[in-house]
Amino acid sequence: MSDLIDQVRATALLQPGRPVLVLLSGGRDSVCLLDLATRISGTAHVAALHCNYGLRDEAAADQEHCAALCERLGVELHVRRPRRPEGAGNLQAWARDQRYGEAMKLAPGDFAAGHTASDQVETVLYRLAASPGRRALLGMAAREGRLIRPLLGVSRAETAAHCEARGLAWREDASNAAPEFARNRLRAELLPALRDLHPAAEANVLRTLALLRDEAAVLDAVVDQALAEAGDPPALQALRELPPALRRLALQRLADRAIGGQAPAIGHRTADVLALSEGGALDVGGGLRAEVRAGALRFGGSRGPAAPQSVPP
After folding, report:
1. How confident is the model at residue 172 (pLDDT cuts 50, 70, 90)?
2. Contacts 24+ apart (CB under 8 A), 256-261
3. 80: DSSP letter
4. Residue 297: CB partners within 8 Å, gap ≥ 6?
5. Which residue, of 143, 163, 197, is where some domain finishes?
6. Does a cis peptide bond (omega within 30 degrees of 0) precede residue 16?
7. Which residue intervals of 172-232 are DSSP H helices?
8. What does the pLDDT look like over 89-147, one tens digit per residue?
9. 183 phi and psi, to 5 degrees?
10. Does the residue 251 lie in any domain?
11. Pairing with 39, which of 133, 171, 227, 244 sits 20 to 30 Å away (CA)?
12. Residues of the domain holding 282
């Protein structure tokens, strides 16, 4: 148990005296995270947020469990009850957005999610199947702005062992086994098949992820240098002269900058964007538009139909 505390402390995501809001579902991972946060950051600096979506019969009991746990640990609990409107789209994405939105409003500093190494493997495999591009292989970051994930190096088995050793009960969410959710099918079917192929399959995915993140840092520096040399905003001709892979990465970086975050993948539109002529514009998806003005490429929001474009001879 002390090894797990040391492991999480070594990430420096939780620090003594630094305020943190823990996203508490009542499951084993979030229960483990809350306990570790109180022991590393100090109880006075920890609060918890529980979102009761009212979507399951057990929702009220989950909330009561979280309240009892926080009382035992001496942690302030904030409860929110978002209700899903008609046409809200993907249920899990909506719930995540609600949870993070509330956390952004409540947390004086960082807010922590209980994503584990097990979640990381599932995320990489799911994204690899569902979305092309290198981003799929980079998984979840330990820090994304104010969102931190102190347990990314910890398996679900380890969080369960910690809770058992500390005498901390947790709630099991029956929807985690529901086959209508793709992530659940991956967990129940694909991961066992991969373990049959090689017992270290999950560990190998995580090792590969670590290597790719190191290499991504190098690529990011190369992209930054290329864009710096292309000007601000970058000259279209300078972008055309880059190697194909670097063109793709440079355009994605420009799209990301335009929205101040992570834009939808636009690599498949690279040739179309670079074929724009002066005054041309192209909607690339995700509410983004590429435009060429004064020989430079700019990304901005889509506003009605894109201007006609002509492809240079």
Report:
1. confident
2. 257/299, 258/288, 258/299, 258/300, 258/301, 259/286, 259/288
3. E
4. 233, 234, 235, 236, 239, 251, 254, 273, 276, 290, 291
5. 197
6. no
7. 182-185, 191-197, 201-230
8. 677 788 888 999 999 999 999 999 999 999 999 999 998 888 777 777 888 999 999 99
9. -60, -35
10. yes
11. 171
12. 203-301
Considering only CA atoms, which of 283, 292, 288, 285 is closest in space to residue 312?
Answer: 292
**How far is it, in rounded angstroms, from Cα 134 to Cα 98?**
28
Q: How many domains, the chain?
A: 2
Task: Please report where in the chains the tokens 């929702």 appear, as a residue.
Answer: 59
* Closest among 161, 184, 165, 162 to 173, alpha carbons compared: 184
Check whether 253 has a pLDDT greater than 80.
Answer: yes
Answer whether 82's CB lies under 8 Å from 51's CB.
yes
Task: Judge whether 13 lies within some domain.
Answer: yes
d(C-alpha 207, C-alpha 217), whole Å: 16
- Answering whether pTM is above 0.85, one says no
Q: How far apart are CA 109 and CA 209, in angstroms?
A: 28
Please identify which residue in the block is written with the tokens 């409860």.
79
299 beta partners:
290
Same domain? 193 vs 207 = no
Same domain assignment for residues 186 and 220? no
HSE (side-chain half, CA atoms, 13 Å) at 10 = 9
Residues 244 and 222 in one domain: yes
